[in-house]
Amino acid sequence: MFVISKLLSAVTQPMFWLGLWWLLALLLLGRWRRGAVAMLWVGLVCLVLLGFGAIPNALLRDLENRYPIPSADVIEKQVGVIVLGGGTGHPDTFLVHGQVPLNESAERMTVPMGLLHRYPGFELVFAGGEGRLATTGITEAMLAERFFQEQGVDMSRLSFEGGSRNTRENAQQIAKFLGARCQEPWLLVTSAWHMARSLPEFEAVDCNVTPYPVDFRTGASTPWTDYALVGSLGQWQTVLHEWLGQLVYRLTR
Fold first, then answer.
1. Where in the chain is the domain with CATH 3.40.50.620?
2. pLDDT tens-digit readout, 28-86
3. Three state DSSP letters for 183-226
4. What is the C-alpha separation between 38 and 51, in angstroms, rounded?
5. Domain 70-214: which CATH class?
6. pTM
7. Distance of alpha carbon 230 from alpha carbon 21, whole angstroms
């Protein structure tokens, strides 16, 4: 299932579909020249239109706004924070330079650190193995442990689970790791757009979690004048990836 899910991630990339479209047009070029040329132009127009961020941002905003950030009164009643991996970069950077790389989801790492400083009684449990087909031997848990050590966090308050490779395994492994303590109230920290897929998985293993979304990618609105092809394609991929993930998880739960 894990390998299949990684291979299916290609279908969440708009350029994958445009590539197939253009390939089909090229294959038809010899037999149906006029139609094939039209297909090539249609693909080019679609590529240009994909650079407008208003549509993918609106779809992403819907994912991000499903769960509010809990109030201070709610946070104070928790015993700690469960943090899902995804905020660190490729391990090769660490292996070569010895520095923990943070990616665009860095708030998954920085926000929990702030919560630990603000609430001295909190514990933190980090979940993240290697979610890559080509493994490096360095898990996200290892990188996270190094990161928190470098930030001067009291490591006696932290625990790390490095065997899970995706969101479902995150929940299953954390439930096993915590045992009966999973029934205690915990904050669940992950990207806001990822929370709609994460929360049901923790509820399915009877963990008592309150969503604490971080790593927001959108604001109140996106003007149509905002144009950035690379950034917009990334937003489309994030939305499509989450939609596909939610569908697969619902069908297999």
1. 70-214
2. 998 899 999 999 999 999 999 999 999 999 999 999 999 999 999 999 999 999 999 99
3. HCCEEEEEEHHHHHHHHHHHHHCCCCEEEEEECCCCCCCCCCCC
4. 21
5. alpha beta
6. 0.90
7. 19
